Amino acid sequence: MNSKSNLKNHILYVHPKSQMMFKELIPISVPATINFIARDYKILGLFQKELSTKHIKEAKIIILDIHWYLTLPNAINLSKKIKKINPLISIIVAGLTASYFHKQIIMNSSIDFIIRGDVEVPMKLLIKEIISKTTNYESIPNLTTKNISTVHSYSTNKSDYNNFNYLNIDFFPTFKKKITQIHRINLTRPISTHPAIMTFKGCFYDCNNCVGSNSMQQKIFKRDSILKDPTTVKKEIISCIKMGYKFVNFFHDFITQTDLSYINEILNEKYSLYVYYEFARPPQDLNHLDMLMNSFKGGIISIPVDLYHGSSNTLTNFDLLKKMITKIKKNNTFSEQILFSKYFYINDQNYKLFIEKLFYETNMNIINCDFFWSNFPGDNLLKTKKEEEYNFYLKNKGKKFILFNFITKTWLFINTRSPRFCIPVLENILLILTKQLSNLTFIIYKRLYIFFKLFDNIRHK
Fold first, then answer.
1. What distance in Å separates the CA atoms of residue 67 and residue 19, rounded to the nearest whole number?
2. Does 461 share its domain with 380?
3. Are 361 and 229 part of one and the same domain?
4. How much is the CA Rg of the chain, to the nearest whole Å?
5. Residue 390 placed within a domain
6. What is the pLDDT of residue 401?
7. Phi and psi for 41 in degrees, rounded to 5?
């Protein structure tokens, strides 16, 4: 009898609750890790609210992600609740935040194992040890427990990276159902959820306060950034079409970080998908923007005003950015989303004049992206005291995202009913997200969201 038939639902992946935009949002690399392990072991994916006492009592292993810092408080509390119900269960954690704070997390939680850095192979080896009860944990690379910390000797190589499956979410039925519902609606504007095509592991740029930067990749993952083969990227795009998806997300900007041959290999045909594409810095060749728009049906193109993904005041060329915005606006199926920093807008006069002139001359859609990078009041992740930073994240439950999330969800549901009304109205409301709105405004948005949520549920029954 093989491992899969022996361990029905004995291994669970649970996504901790957080204040992310949608609950239909898990770390991009989770499917790759779970699908790799699922070659030998059956794994069931659940949201935290789905996790029952019965699940916990029957399970032998629970895997939690602490990738985004917003999941940190709930993941630690959840580990304690799980152990109270089933003291014999093994809790495994992985992710960027877990890797960065592995010493602090292991000592302040009921978590048994933290895998640092790239996790695919070490996690599979660890599960094998737990199931076989040999407990030879010293042989597992990148492992932190309360008693040991093994050598960080495993990093994903390019061959494995190209073969991991980032798209299949069959292991997580509720997540798959929600994603299917989102794509079933005829959206012309992509939503920041699954699928997202991960063209590289680790950005090639070094932006401040970004754990995905090249310097932090070397620090946390003990490797340089890895670029996925363009043929693999293209296959993944085509797979998205075959799987019935209506849109695809590119949060990893390959256009400004690769050469023309790489770009041509991917953007050399028209895909029947809408796209969200986020540039890490403005492309220096307008032809690259044309190639992107010619390859997809439409969507959103996000461009920062600076050279470091909205995290700096090193501004790009004004005339070039103006031409890009004008070009996108002339295309009826695409819209622009220009990223700026409110912090630099307030504190840098040249930056402020740049933004105001650009807005006046283009009437661009503009988004304050400070919440991407300014979560911790330190100079730089490489310089900040880790204990101080950990305590800040531990207390930060993402309350400031609540209003943002309500408005985003309201936008989603109204957009599915009346996009011509939604786009000009709600997108303008998004411009003031960083300001304090009245309690009355908050209540109105909350009720709007509940109304459209109920309407959506009735519509799909």
1. 13
2. no
3. yes
4. 22
5. no
6. 65
7. -135, 140
Instruction: Give me the pLDDT at residue 25, please.
Output: 82
Rounded to 5°, the CA angle 52-167-113 comes to 50
Which of 129, 170, 203, 142 is closest to 30 using CA atoms? 170
CA angle 7, 8, 10 (to 5 degrees): 65
Per DSSP (E only), the strands in 324-444 are: 334-340, 366-368
Determine if residue 117 is left, alpha or beta; phi over 0 gives left, psi from -120 to 50 gives alpha, anything else beta.
left
Q: Is 276 exposed, middle or buried (0-12, 13-18, 19+ CB in 10 A)?
A: buried
Token code pair at residue 18: 């957080």
The residue type found at 230 is: P
Are 350 and 461 found together in one domain? no
Q: Tell me the whole-structure pTM to 2 decimals.
A: 0.85
Residue 45 lies in a domain: yes
Top pLDDT among 321 and 341 is at 321
Q: Do residues 20 and 64 share a domain?
A: yes
pLDDT digits (tens, 9 = 90+) for 189-245: 788 889 999 999 988 888 877 777 888 888 888 998 999 999 999 999 999 999 999
Could you give the CA distance from residue 459 to residue 461 in angstroms, rounded to a whole number? 6
- Contact assessment for residue 101 and residue 14, using Cβ atoms and an 8 Å cutoff: no
Range of the domain at 332: 186-384
Residue 11 DSSP code:
E
Rounded Cα distance, 301 and 189, in Å = 10
Over residues 34-86, the pLDDT tens digits come to 999 999 999 999 999 999 999 999 999 999 999 888 888 889 999 999 999 99
Question: Quick one: average pLDDT of 101-120?
Answer: 95
Instruction: Report how far Cα 398 is from the mean position of its chain's Cα atoms.
Output: 15
Contacts for 141 with CB less than 8 Å, ≥ 6 apart = 121, 122, 125, 150, 151, 152, 153, 154
Q: With 0-12 CB in 10 A as exposed, 13-18 as middle and 19+ as buried, what is 11? A: buried
Cβ–Cβ < 8 Å for 137, 90:
no
Which residue has tokens 């075959």? 242
Written as one letter, the residue type at 216 is: M
- pLDDT the model gives residue 418: 52
Number of domains, the chain: 3
